[in-house]
Design brief:
The protein is of the alpha/beta class and 363 residues long. It is built from ten helices and 13 strands. Helix 5 crosses helix 7 (260-268), helix 7 (260-268) packs across helix 8 (272-296) and helix 8 (272-296) packs across helix 9 (312-325).
Length: 363
């Protein structure tokens, strides 16, 4: 019988003490992110179509590997009938696909998707409840289809091609009717355990405050969104305040017509009251960002959405409030706050690029 030499004898398993195990360093994280970026640069060619589904319109575009839109189209959102929306998507893809070799299709929509990315669990704008949208569209389009949240798609676009380039931990905030959000961490969209991460607008920032559509009171989006800006301006105008005369003049005295967009336009034109209202919203924005920095510690916040048309009139007070409320201020690095670079096309650019990356990695 063969007797193993001492060097062949099995040795007892020894578990390395926890304190001796090398922890992943920041350089490890950076190397992983750089490796993934190299994969993105070398591993994808061809064109993809991105589709951004909103409550009133469906926008689509042919997007190349550098994030450039080659052609675009749009349709009105056909009510809340899921089948009718699917048909509009098919029509847009077929129309835009003529003359192009399309590799894949990405769909970005407001709502919650399952972690597999095949089913819309819930959409606030459309009657999608546990809707197997990816399967339906792949059958109709005969191409790979990726389904994602619209805020995730916009964040990916900013990370790949916009204001978030070079960041390992990026948080994107979308300011519109409400507040949406998304995170890109080490080259991946971070969706949380159940796929519904990024609902930053519903952190409670003022207990007992304004009632939110989600059912709670005092949500962040009730103080730092386009809706909040319009509401505050309407309340001021309804009181017939002498400082609200420019607001009233802009809507011919019809208070209900005052919106956040009108306030923003007046602020840009120099109206001091509108600028003051925007500054208030910016301060609430900065406070919420300080809360997110305490929880997530990103390297950069990118702020997008329609309200960001105000530019530095919004961003400057947000940065001041952020610096004033940041936990450990003066003793820690602070995240940068920047305005988004890709505008309203970020969602369709991101959806297209994510679909191409996904189809290449799984193809």
């Amino acid at each position: 019988m063969h007797t193993p030499s001492p060097g062949d004898l099995p040795r007892p398993y020894r578990r390395t003490a926890a304190w001796r195990r090398r922890k992943p360093s920041a350089q490890d994280s950076l190397s992983a992110s750089q490796s993934f970026r190299e994969h993105l640069r070398l591993g994808r060619k061809g064109l993809a179509i991105g589709v951004d589904i909103g409550g009133t319109k469906v926008a689509a575009g042919v997007v190349d590997a550098d994030g450039r839109i080659l052609s675009q189209g749009r349709r009105s959102t056909p009510g809340n009938d899921p089948r009718a929306v699917e048909q509009v998507i098919v029509e847009l893809v077929e129309e835009l696909g003529r003359g192009h070799r399309i590799w894949s299709v990405g769909i970005g929509a407001a709502g919650w998707m399952d972690l597999d990315g095949g089913t819309v669990l819930f959409s606030p704008h459309l009657a999608w409840r546990n809707e197997p949208l990816r399967e339906n569209l792949q059958r109709l389009l005969r191409r790979p289809v990726l389904l994602t949240n619209d805020a995730d798609a916009a964040a990916w676009a900013e990370w790949r091609f916009g204001a978030g380039q070079g960041q390992n931990r990026l948080v994107c905030i979308t300011l519109g009717t409400g507040i949406g959000g998304a995170m890109v961490m080490d080259g991946r969209v971070e969706r949380g355990r159940f796929g519904v991460a990024g609902e930053f607008g519903h952190q409670i920032i003022m207990p007992g405050g304004h009632r939110c559509e989600c059912g709670n009171r005092g949500c962040w989006e009730q103080y730092a969104s386009g809706n909040a800006l319009g509401r505050e301006a309407r309340e001021l105008a309804a009181a017939n305040s002498p400082v609200a005369q420019e607001l009233l003049k802009a809507v011919d005295g019809q208070v209900d017509r005052i919106t956040g967009a009108i306030v923003t336009d007046l602020a840009k034109a120099g109206d001091p009251t509108s600028r003051e209202l925007l500054e208030d919203v910016g301060e609430w924005l900065g406070l919420g960002l300080a809360n997110l920095a305490a929880a997530l510690d990103p390297g950069k916040f990118v702020i997008g959405g329609g309200l960001c048309d105000a530019g530095e009139l919004l961003a400057a007070p947000a940065r001041k409030a952020f610096a004033r409320n940041l936990t450990g201020r003066g003793f820690r690095p602070a995240a940068e706050i920047a305005l988004a670079a890709l505008g309203p096309n970020a969602g369709l650019i991101g959806a297209a690029d994510l679909s191409r990356v996904s189809s290449r990695m799984h193809g």
